[in-house]
Specification:
Number of helices: 10
Largest sheet: 5 strands, mixed
Structural class: alpha+beta
Number of strands: 12
Number of domains: 2
Strand content: 15-25%
Shape: rod-shaped
Length: 436
Amino acid sequence: MSARHHNGQAMLVVLAFLATLAGGFLVVFSVGQVVNDKVRLVNAADAAAFSAAQWQARSLNYEAYLNRAIVANEVAIAQLVSLRSWSHYMDRTISNAETVSNFYAPARVVMQVLERAWSFVDRAIERVGPMETALSVWNGALVTAQTTAYVQASPVAANLVSEVVAAQEPRAEVYGATHFLRARNDVQWFGFTKRYQRGGGELDRYTQLLMDSRDGFSAQRSGDLLPADSLLQVSKRGGTDLIGEYTWRGLDTLAVHIDLGIAQVEIPVGWGAAERRKQSTVRRGEHDGSYRRNPQTSRLAQRALTPAQGYLGVPEIRDLAHLDNTDDQRIGYSVALRLPQQRIDTADRLVLPQGLYGVAGEPEPLTPLLAESALHALGSAEVYFRRPEQRSDGRQEYPSLFNPYWQARLSTVPNLDRQLSAPFRGLSWDPFGVGP
């Protein structure tokens, strides 16, 4: 056979090789585009989940700051009541001393001047009483702000997901799985905290916190002028207590005690009381042991008390729903996204929308079909409680809604969220959502 009959055969081989090489290149290009878009989609889902969790963390911190402000206002009410009670006590003590001084002329003039001066001071201090009502009303406004922050956190977090996804990967879709997981996120959020209401003892822990938060002057205005084993003792007792959920009451007493051996004689010297309440109560406070040490004088102070209305009661604060759980409480936020296959810039879409024609003459796609004709991605973040540094006393601080130490971070997608979203991703179940 002559060489002329073999002309062009090498060219056919070269063309076939180049076609195969081009097809391989297009396949590699398409797979690379799919992998790249998958990474972008995962990053968008993570960013959206983190942004939503961060907003929830900020909402919890805002509510914690409001709780602190409410506590501060309640303590301020206690301070004002304490000041009025102590002023009434001083006025009564000086008045009694002025009466006694009538038997000694040089002291009478001094005591009369002092009595008139302190009466003026007492009337001036009594005028601060309306501030107690104003603080109580302001606490009601803070509670409303706290409720607003709690309610708006969920829709704002969902809106952030849409905004972050649009900024990170505009081609991605917020679809059925996203809305399904959003409902689960809402269940977690609305079950994480609760409003503790008056009555039934729900606020007992909070009222004790308010009592523990009192300053020294409000909690204890007591002292003994002579040793406890003296036959003659002068005892000052006083303090301001939160009685139930609707009353702040201050009581101050001063009495002389004479030990006669067979009996103790109490001689009242001075007394005073002040109260801001919403409703009357038959209960009485401790007032740093005033009723125990100066019972007769305490009854005089109680009878001299003129209660003032205007207190709205202990605010119904918001705190974690499970306070008995001292473990590291967390709340998660998961996001599901999809990127339709027709939006991925593969060779099919850019160069050969009909694909390559195979041996049988049928077009073959350059990119394998994806589940549900789309890329899918899950992202998850969690809100957790952690102090930026350890307490100075070395004690462990458990999560609560009184300290603004809530933070957000990315986390592993919970198994439940994987299984719940599996049907939307073309799976009957998610093999990665099994196990610990």
